[in-house]
Amino acid sequence: MSTIDRAEWLKKVRAQAEALYDHLAPAYWVTFGLYANAAHRQFIEKFLGRLEAQSAILDAACGAGRYDGMLVEAGHSVLGIDQSGNMLARAREYLPQERFPGLRYAKMGLQEIDFQAEFDGVICIDAMEHVSPEDWPGILARFQKALRPGGMLYVTVEVAEWGEVGEAYKRAKALGLPVLFGEVVDEIDAAYAQAAALDWQAIPGEQADLAVYHYYPSPEQVRAWLDQAGLAIVEEGTGDGYAHLLASKNA
């Protein structure tokens, strides 16, 4: 049985993730983040097709702003938030306000979102896999509160290889970590230490991924959490290694 306090451990891995993304930020728009992601773009188009003209969009965990130019060029205003200040700096560098006047950025983690009916749409892409099961319901509730009535959420959920997830869980338990099933963290400390010691240009993408906390809820659990948050799924699909869900705020 683990003697490590789970709440403190989760704080530590979240802080490590912020520090790692601060360290990796120069790689975005250079090496990381340049994959095609055709399914993501397809679902962004579906998401945009459900919005009125000149809508207000929240890009939650926006990172370096990979999709923000696409949203602004579609005629919408965008607020991008992320817990990594360096990733936001990278976004501002590549999406300058003089070219994208409808685009703003603010440093804020998903757990700190406190908007009340300010947005017509919310997107959260390739980020929820780094959120603990304790935080999932609250974050979805924060998305729901941030939306105006009838507003639209687009969220991705990384598809799990359940055999690998089960083996990672066994290894983490053997290490004495306070894990729950679905968490993949057995290599996180060693990979983080190695990545932090390297220049950003020398960090392999696979190692960077191992250095960050991952949690994989079941599809049934995700649907239940969305329903509890007052978000009704209107379309879903898979592609690029993710499940893609469009959900509307219940009126």
Please describe the topology of this protein:
Layout: H1 6-24, H2 38-49, E1 56-60, H3 68-73, E2 77-82, H4 85-94, E3 103-107, E4 119-124, H5 136-146, E5 147-158, H6 162-174, E6 183-184, H7 188-197, H8 205-210, E7 214-215, H9 219-228, E8 231-239, E9 242-249
Parallel strand pairs: 1-2, 1-4, 2-3, 4-5
Antiparallel strand pairs: 5-9, 6-7, 8-9
List keywords for this structure.
251 residues, two-stranded antiparallel sheet, 22% strand, Rossmann fold, globular, single chain, alpha/beta, 7-stranded mixed beta sheet
- Note the beta-strand portion: 15-25%
Number of separate domains: 2
Question: What average pLDDT do the residues reach?
Answer: 95
Task: Give the strand order of the largest sheet, numbering strands 1, 2, ... along the chain.
Answer: 3-2-1-4-5-9-8
CATH architecture of the largest domain: 3-Layer(aba) Sandwich
Structural class computed from helices and strand pairing: alpha/beta
What sort of overall outline do the alpha carbons produce when their principal axes are compared? globular
Uncertain parts? none
CATH superfamily of the largest domain: Vaccinia Virus protein VP39
User: How far apart lie the N and C ends?
Assistant: 45 Å
Write down how many β-strands occur, each being a DSSP E stretch of 2 or more residues: 9
- Taking all Cα atoms into account, the compactness measure Rg is 18 Å
What is the CATH class designation of the largest domain? Alpha Beta
User: Major β-sheet, in short?
Assistant: 7 strands, mixed
Report the total helices: 9
Helix content: 25-40%
* CATH level-3 fold name of the largest domain: Rossmann fold
